User: What shape does this take?
Amino acid sequence: MAHVTTARPTALTALLTGYVSGDVTDAVMSRFDDLFEGTSASAQERIAFARFYLDVLAAGDDADALPEPGEIGGILSALQA
Assistant: This one.
């Protein structure tokens, strides 16, 4: 069985790795989890939000800069339009 790895991890992998290593706070991961609980977001939408979260964190912002869980429906609708 061949094992293939990529040079660049997916956004979800990078976000989880950051959390495990302590670079991503509990508040950020909690907000990310809350956004998708009870929604029908696709895998692509979840990965897109993980990328967005990583960009926000790289810019030096914290969990307060992330969307509120109640805003996810409108954001996903706008993305799908």
